[in-house]
Specification:
The complex is a heterodimer of chains A (464) and B (194). Chain A is α+β, with helices and mostly antiparallel strands and 464 residues long. Chain A contains 8 helices and 20 strands. In chain A, 22% of the residues lie in helices and 28% in strands. Chain B has 194 residues and is mainly alpha-helical. Classes of the chains: A alpha+beta (464), B mainly alpha (194). At the A-B interface, helix 1, helix 3, strand 1, helix 4 and helix 5 of A face helix 2, helix 3, helix 4, helix 6 and helix 7 of B.
Chain lengths: 464, 194
């Protein structure tokens, strides 16, 4: 392949013209050259052919399990600092629940075999339609659930409360083929013609090809579990403290008898002192299960011709309450010190009680003040799966640099001081201790982080 | 408001659709964006990065960023274009290294992902697809050029691609021109030998 420099220049122009607007001169020069150069013309045809074939690359289907895993990754935020944790937990609550409802219902149902489907490449012209529908709250969402489902064992479970989950008859926006329905069968790679949703808007009325069903050689058994219509793991169901939540558990099989499966329910209660349990449930298509505060895992294990099949789904019923401070009472008593020295001597020792912040429910803490100016603080509490830090900011770990000082006693007999909060990264913030009230065997004080973030209020009883 | 968002340089002003900012749950908007685009975006990333695990990481990162934008009240006008731009940018920048350093998937989670990917049928598609001569030619290109051609295949214009890969207009034009010619010459050679 020997290109003279001149030919190469024109080929570059032709290649550039695929993605960029040529100037009038460039276009004229290119056309003039191509008119008289057969070799270049052929090659330019090749360039355009390559570009077209690139757009024909199919969208590779993603197995439902992989989709679920990816979605979980998106829902699981990284927390840069311990201080961000609770914010993230709150975000997760909102995200996980609503998003799981929306996506779980639409994206991942029915529990398809993790087989290939190749769907046409969504061209740019198709995207406005898809995105219109996707983000038009008033109209039907173009969720995959909007397409016809292949026959599965379960009825369409209704999900209330989320507009995203409304199942609607396919409208013009639902033309986009559904990977889960387009190719119902495994081990077949089928490339379908590209139906463009934009056609429904364009003036040229070309028919939209319907997905051609592929013949079924050998049905492959599958099993799936849904909780209230979701097959998303790791979503949270809010409950009231002391209450439980009734959910619909669905066991969905394809080409497999329900009786081939055993179904178990494991519970990790979010309550100190209550141990985990695991019970067997009847392997029926639908049943109601009451979820108490805590983590719940359902697992279906099925005997199938090709080997055992397992489906698992984990959800959390969460009352957003660490349990240990429920019913904690702390009543104000008269302050028992009159000098700074008395206060400094009086706080030494170990204290236990609860801490309250503007951002969390009360959680259990233990604090020790030592006469060398060091302290320890820790919380054994867990808020919906997240370990609490006693001082909210910083770490509970025994790390160097945890120091405190009380250096003033106000006329109100409340002390003022400072406390160094140490983070796992090694950084330290010197923060304020305010309103330190020693009341005999009771101690109350507040921490303000960076002067403004607080109060983190400690209400403690002497432990030793 | 719309004008303000447009000034942030969305891909296609005519094809813009905003994520609703009021009245509709914003997380639901992200989940719908996931439902609608994650498959095509992952296909794109697999071909652009030639690595399943990287593609998945970048996909998740793109959606995490979308979540942040939406929660910060800055939903992109054209979500699909926005996602492609972020994904492309991640795939050509050093973001991959930073992502690894952050290691936001646990070791266990990662192992599970790798195994799942190796066994997955879509992994098989990718493998068989690699045998295609066109993809083989594409694979020989530098990552930036490959990403640019794949973006073009998704319908993006040269100007949009320049923005996505963070290059000037002129640099992108010459990058893509050379890439297209390289692919063509590569295919002509393959055809000549077969």
């Amino acid at each position: 392949v020997n290109d003279s420099g001149r030919h190469r220049d024109y080929l570059e122009l032709a290649a550039a013209a695929i993605d960029f607007e040529l100037s009038a001169e460039e276009r004229a020069a290119l056309e003039a050259h191509l008119a008289g150069c057969t070799a270049c013309r052929r090659r330019v045809e090749g360039l355009r052919w390559d570009a077209r074939r690139l757009t024909d690359f199919p969208v590779l289907a993603v197995a439902p399990a992989a989709s679920a895993r990816l979605w979980r990754g998106i829902q699981r935020p990284r927390w840069p600092m311990p201080t961000m944790r609770l914010v993230a937990v709150a975000a997760l609550l909102g995200l996980a629940l609503l998003a799981a409802l929306a996506v779980g219902a639409s994206l991942l149902r029915p529990p398809e075999p993790s087989d290939l489907a190749v769907v046409p490449n969504a061209s740019l012209s198709a995207s406005p339609v898809a995105s219109t529908a996707a983000f038009d709250a008033s109209g039907p969402p173009p969720s995959f659930a909007a397409s016809a489902q292949p026959a599965i064992a379960s009825p369409e479970p209704p999900i209330d409360g989320s507009p995203a989950t409304t199942t609607v008859p396919p409208g013009p926006s639902a033309v986009r083929p559904d990977p889960s329905t387009a190719v119902p069968e495994p081990s077949n790679v089928t490339t379908q013609p590209s139906p463009t949703p934009a056609q429904s808007q364009s003036a040229t009325p070309s028919p939209t090809p319907a997905p051609a069903p592929t013949p079924t050689p050998a049905p492959k058994p599958t099993v799936g579990l849904l909780v209230d219509g979701n097959d998303m793991s790791a979503f949270m169901l809010p409950i009231e403290t002391g209450d439980s939540r009734r959910v619909e558990l669905e066991l969905v099989t394809q080409h497999l008898a329900l009786s081939a499966c055993t179904l178990t329910h494991s519970v990790e209660p979010d309550k100190p002192g209550v141990s985990a349990s695991k019970v067997e449930l009847p392997s029926v298509a639908t049943q109601s299960v009451d979820l108490i505060d805590g983590g719940h895992t359902f697992q279906a294990s099925c005997k199938a011709p090709g080997g055992p099949l397992v489906a698992k789904i984990a959800v959390r019923a969460a009352d957003r309450q660490p349990e240990a401070c429920l019913g904690f009472e702390f009543s104000q008593r008269p302050i028992s010190v009159t000098t700074l020295a008395e206060l400094n001597a009086g706080v030494l020792g170990t204290w236990e009680g609860c801490a309250t912040t503007p951002w969390t429910p009360p959680y259990v803490v233990a604090v020790t003040f030592r006469d060398d100016g060091t302290y320890s603080a820790s919380s054994s509490d867990v808020l919906d799966g997240q370990e609490m830090q006693a001082t909210y900011y910083g770490t509970d770990d025994e790390v160097p640099g945890k120091q405190y000082a009380i250096n003033d006693l106000q006329d109100s007999l409340k002390g003022l001081g400072q406390i160094d909060l140490v983070f796992n990264s090694g950084s330290v913030t010197r923060d304020e201790l305010r309103n330190i009230e020693l009341m005999g065997d009771q101690l109350r004080f507040e921490i303000f982080h960076f002067v403004t973030y607080g109060p983190i209020t400690f209400e403690l009883f002497r432990a030793s | 408001m719309t004008g303000e968002r447009s000034r942030r340089g969305e891909f296609d002003a005519e094809a813009t659709q905003a994520v609703p900012t009021a009245g509709v749950d914003r997380s639901a908007a992200v989940s719908l964006a996931f439902a609608t685009y994650h498959e095509e975006l992952l296909s794109f990333l697999r071909r652009a990065t030639r690595n399943e695990a990287t593609a998945e990481d970048l996909l998740q990162e793109a959606y995490l960023r979308l979540t942040r934008e939406v929660e910060a009240g800055r939903p992109p006008d054209n979500v699909r274009a926005w996602l492609y731009r972020v994904a492309s940018n991640l795939s050509v920048s050093g973001a991959r290294r930073r992502l690894t350093a952050l290691s936001w998937l646990t070791r266990n989670g990662r192992a599970e992902v790798d195994r799942a990917v190796d066994d997955s049928p879509e992994g098989g598609v990718l493998r068989s697809e690699r045998r295609s001569e066109l993809l083989a030619a594409l694979d020989k290109l530098p990552p930036e050029a490959r990403t640019a051609l794949l973006l073009s295949a998704q319908g993006f214009s040269g100007l949009e691609i320049a923005e996505a890969i963070g290059r000037s207009h002129g640099a992108t034009r010459s990058l893509m021109t050379r890439a297209r010619l390289a692919v063509r010459l590569d295919l002509e050679q393959t055809e000549a030998f077969s």
